[in-house]
Structure formats: structure tokens, C-alpha cells
Known about the structure:
This protein is of the alpha/beta class. The protein has seven helices and seven strands.
Amino acid sequence: MTSTASGSRSLRMTEKDMQKLLASHVHLGTKNLSNSMKTYTYGRTKDGVHIMDLHMTWEKLILAARILVAVENPADVTVCSHRLFGHRAVFKFAQSIGATCMAGRFIPGTFTNQIQKKYQQPRVLIVTDPRTDHQALDEARLANIPVIALCDTDAPLRNVDVAIPCNNRGKHAIAMMYWLLAREVLRMRGTIPRSLDWELKADLFVYRDPEEAAKDEEARAAQDKTAPKKEEFNWAESGQQGDEWSA
């Protein structure tokens, strides 16, 4: 991998951050590779899956965080995700930094039709996948809105200003990228000191299937019912018996 260094030592990637990226499979791309993403790839696995350079990923992540910090009003930052695995991640990301969240289907005309009730004029747009969020990219181009995108190895970079090379198909990879981006934004704002870990865990950014969540709740409820109840000692009754014996 390349050893591209950040401008400041405090902004360089630590060993813990590298382990988190590797554990979340952020570096694993697809078997296809677009011409615009060749500069961000490092090699290929035996199965033909392209591997992305995590140093390049970190550099683009820091660049995106600097852009977001420069926006005076955090609500002027809009984050979109048509992909299902990114719904919870963009919601928690927007909640953490104060941005505007648009999870699910992007309503046409949100950035171009002023008559629409949900008309927005964001300063910066963040998308999870340039392919699935193509409608938001097209309208951002017409409205002259800079775009930050999480791009896989086969992603087209048309109308994308800052491309962050990463795995944008896995739910853990998407959650980790948005968690790291939110953490770096808050650190640059001074909300979180760099000497301490962020209290908000990355697990809260991971998408959870509603059916699996319901099954987990049912299993917990069943365990609570079957668990033996502890015998409670009635201090009032014991006090009355003690009075009778003393009498």
C-alpha cells in the first residue's frame, strides 16, 4: 500500500482505525473495476476481488471531513442513501453532526423544483452509492452542489467531486465509514477530544433487519420469563414477628 501522509500528524490513521477498517471489510471491492477507480486499487485476491488502498481511503475521508467542517450550518449538509444497508447509517450520521438525512427513495425535484414542499438547497451532498443515488447526483449537478460519495471499485465518478474508495455494499463497511466520518467531523469541531474514544459505538450505525430484531426481542422476553425469580425478603413481616417474640 502507498504511504501517503496527512498534512498533520494528529490526522493520520492509527493502528486501531486500520484494524477497524479491515475488520469491517472496507478494503474489499468487487470483481469489476472502472477506469476512474484504478488509482485507488492495490491488488486482487485469488477470487478476483479487487482490494482498495486503505491509505487512500483515509486521505479522502479526512478531506471529506474538512469540507463538512467548513460548512457553517450543519443542516446544510444532506446525506442520501437509497441502499437499504445505509438507511440506519445515514440517520445516525445526520443525528451525530446535525445534518439532514434522506434515507430511501429520493424524491425527484428535491434540489431543482422550488414549488415542492420538500425543496432543499444544501451546501454539500453525501451519497452512499453513485449508482443507486443517481437521481440525487443529477440534480446536484444542475444545482451546482458539491458531492461526496462512497465509491466501490466499479463505481462511476461522473458528477462526483470527492470519491471515498470503500466497500459500499456491506452493511458493516457502510456503518464503519459513516461512523469514522462523523467522528472526524466532531473531532475537528472540537466536540470530541482526540485523546479520548468516542462514546457512540459503531454498532449503532449497522443496519438491522426488523424481523431479526423482533426475533431477538422475543427471545429475550422468553428468557426473562423462564429465569427463576429471586425470593424477596419482607422486612415488614420480619419486623412484626420480632415484636411478637419480644412481647
